[in-house]
Amino acid sequence: MISENEGEILLEVNNLTVKFTTERGEHTATDGVSFKIKKGETIGIVGESGSGKSVTALSLMRLIPSPPGKIVDAEVLFQSPSMGKVNIMQLNSEEMRSLRGGEIAMIFQEPMTSLNPVFTCGEQITEAIVLHNEGASYKQAKERTLAIFERVRLPESAFYAYPHELSGGQKQRVMIAMALSCQPSLLIADEPTTALDVTVQREILQILQELRESQEMSILFITHDLGVIAEMADSVMVMYNGKIVEKGSVFEIFSNPKHPYTKGLLACRPRLDIKLKVLPVVKDFMETDSEGNIIEMSDTKFKSVGEAIMSNFQSMQEIKMRQARLVEQKPLLQIKDLKVHFVEEKTWFGKISKVKKAVDGVTFDVYQGETLGLVGESGCGKTTLGRSILHLIEPTAGEVYFQDQDISKIASKDIKKLRKDIQIIFQDPYSSLNPRQTIGEAIMEPMRLHEIYANDKERKDRVNHLLETVNLSATYFNRYPHEFSGGQRQRICIARTLAIQPKFVICDESVSALDVSVQAQVLNLLNKLKEEYNLTYIFISHDLSVIKFISDRILVMQDGVIVESGFAEDIYAHPKSEYTKKLLNAIPKGTPEDIRKAMLKRKKQMQKPIA
Fold first, then answer.
1. Least packed by Cβ within 10 Å: which of 7, 89, 460, 497?
2. DSSP code of residue 359
3. Which segments constitute the ABC transporter domain (predicted)?
4. Residue 442 and residue 516 in one domain
């Protein structure tokens, strides 16, 4: 909550307008953005990719590359502890360097690209401390770095480790330690938890909350995850197309959103308390033109979040009937005691001395027409399991039966036929597509390989139909991957998967990198295609909200083994393993009642003396 000095403004932004010059002309990234941050306050900025969130943050740090970027008009007033009240836009380079990293710090979304790979993590933080604290010795900087590492729950060994030797969550903690090393007045956190597991995300959020309270630090928290905003922020700004379309307290925005875009963002989040047939999407609440400008229309599909949810509500009777139909089916895929072990170390004589058991004796069935959710933290073996089924990784032991045929020891000459029936949609759609190949050719290529249709004319007709099926225009056939957004590229990958008419599809974190609204569109599409093409899915994810929405049954994986399995509703209502309970407890909830409880809790914490 806000500090006792309610009226003291730390940062005041007036009319922030940023433009970029592109091949297609001038693009306005932020358009007249204005807001204030008080001392000790956390303000959340939420919106989809391209809404202007990150450009706003980079502008405050004067990190907009020029050219092509240009801050056209802005007044950014900052109450600097060392310089007094200053307009950041008028500071010279030397003054800005002393402010940046010292009094205003930033945590970037991708820690691996923000850390220097040739220096240890400890060296990078001590350098920042020495730079911003005149007279500080290396010994003093090291002691301070180790103290900060302890506060962000990093072991001393991380001081001597290089970035590539740490996990994603540990690297993000190093970035937090670096940002806090000079005790900034303002911390800008740009999507700091987007790529993290739900449990690691919870730890990072708790660290930020504790540090804010103990140091009376203000935070500008940027994310597209409304559940995270509900847990972290006092107030929230919703950005769309470079403008702030709505702002207010977290409770006001979540319990009574006014703008149709805010309603759409809130409605399209998968819910834990109920099962929806179809996720609402932003376009259910508003219409836009080709430039993304909102068209005022009174005949949109839904007027409120509650209306959108109730219209798609799935009753428990419907769920139970589907569950009964599923278990009556014959298993399409049977996994029996599957193991995938990797050699980590060998002796001088070539004898194996250490083995990593990525998958260690997994057994389960997948029924025709179902979606089996596979959930767990990074490193638990989810992706390895999925790829071993496809023979992208050779299993060490065990059996895999597909349509009663043992494919675990399949001959290399028969792999091609297997690939036609079992396909995979990867996490990163951009690296899955050849940047030099048009999307039409990318979709046609596997059809040629598997000799589907007699000629390229028939194949092209099929590609055009598939593009329309995944809500893309057939006119996109000759465009290249870089001309599409992340959500569009993922739909292209789905169309390519469908091109060879598979029976079984593994979706490996296929929506984890997408905005919540685009994620809803892709999840709805996958469900629709499952019904139309009689597909069967294994859906791999670390996002339990997504898993609950799309899955009929769920497997919870930890350290290479299945620790719990069952129908989605049963696992969420009555989890049996302690690991499953831990995962569920870490999910940001984001309902008005959850927000009310979180705000009361933060208010009590702020009434305690600051340590």
1. 7
2. E
3. 11-266, 333-584
4. yes
Report d(CA 304, CA 473) in Å as an integer: 30
**Residue 109 sits in the same domain as residue 226:** no
In this structure, what is the dihedral angle of CA atoms 589, 591, 597, 603, given to the nearest 10 degrees?
Answer: 90
Evaluate whether residue 137 is within a structural domain.
Answer: yes
Query: Do the domain assignments include residue 99?
Result: no
Same domain, yes or no: 409 and 525: yes
Backbone phi and psi for residue 190, each to the nearest 5 degrees, phi listed first: -100, 100
Q: In 151-305, which ranges are E strands?
A: 186-190, 218-223, 235-240, 243-249, 287-288, 294-295
Residue in 593, 600, 599 with CA at minimum distance from that of residue 273: 593
CB-based contacts of 461: which residues, under 8 Å, 6+ apart?
Answer: none
* Number of domains forming the structure of the chain: 4
CATH code for the domain in which residue 523 is found: 3.40.50.300
The tokens describing 149, both together, are 């590492």
Angle at which helix 168-180 crosses helix 138-151, to 10 degrees, equals 130
Chosen domain end from 183, 218, 236: 183
The distance in angstroms from the start CA to the end CA of the chain is: 16
Residue 506 lies in a domain: yes
Q: Is the dihedral of CA 196, 198, 203, 204 positive or negative?
A: positive
The DSSP symbol for 293 reads P
Compute the distance between CA of residue 309 and CA of residue 279 in angstroms, rounded to an integer: 8
How do 287-288 and 294-295 pair as beta strands? antiparallel
User: Across the strands, what pairs with 505?
Assistant: 423, 537
What span, in angstroms and rounded, lies between the C-alpha atoms of 186 and 41?
A: 10
* Residue-number span of the structural domain to which 380 is assigned: 317-586
Same domain, 460 and 498: yes
Q: Name which of 527, 101, 107 is nearest 312 in CA terms.
A: 527
By the 8 A CB rule, do 547 and 541 touch?
yes
Q: Does one domain contain both 479 and 564?
A: yes
Other C-beta atoms lying within 10 Å of the C-beta of residue 68:
13
Q: Give the residue from 260, 283, 315 where a domain finishes.
A: 315
Residue 132 sits in the same domain as residue 240: no
Q: What are phi and psi of 554, to 5 degrees?
A: -135, 140
Same structural domain, 57 and 11 = yes
| d(C-alpha 539, C-alpha 555), whole Å | 10
306, 354: one domain? no
Output the CA–CA distances (angstroms, integers) from residue 432 to 309, 337, 486, 488, in the order listed.
34, 30, 12, 13
Give this prediction's pTM: 0.84
Instruction: Characterise 304 by phi-psi region: left (phi > 0), alpha (psi -120 to 50), beta (else).
Output: beta
Specify the pLDDT at position 605. Answer: 53
The predicted structure's pLDDT at residue 445:
92
In a domain, 98, yes or no: no
Spatial distance between the Cα atoms of 411 and 566, rounded to a whole number of angstroms: 34
The answer to whether the CB of 561 falls within 8 A of the CB of 362 is: yes
Q: What strands, in cross-sheet order, belong to the sheet with 352-367?
A: 352-367, 331-346, 397-402, 405-406
The residue assigned the tokens 């929506």 is 511
Residue 391, C-beta contacts closer than 8 angstroms, at least 6 positions apart: 407, 410, 415, 418
* Nearest CA-CA partner of 516 in 228, 192, 224: 224
Show the low-confidence residues of the chain (pLDDT under 50). Answer: 1-6, 606, 608-611
d(CA 443, CA 425): 13
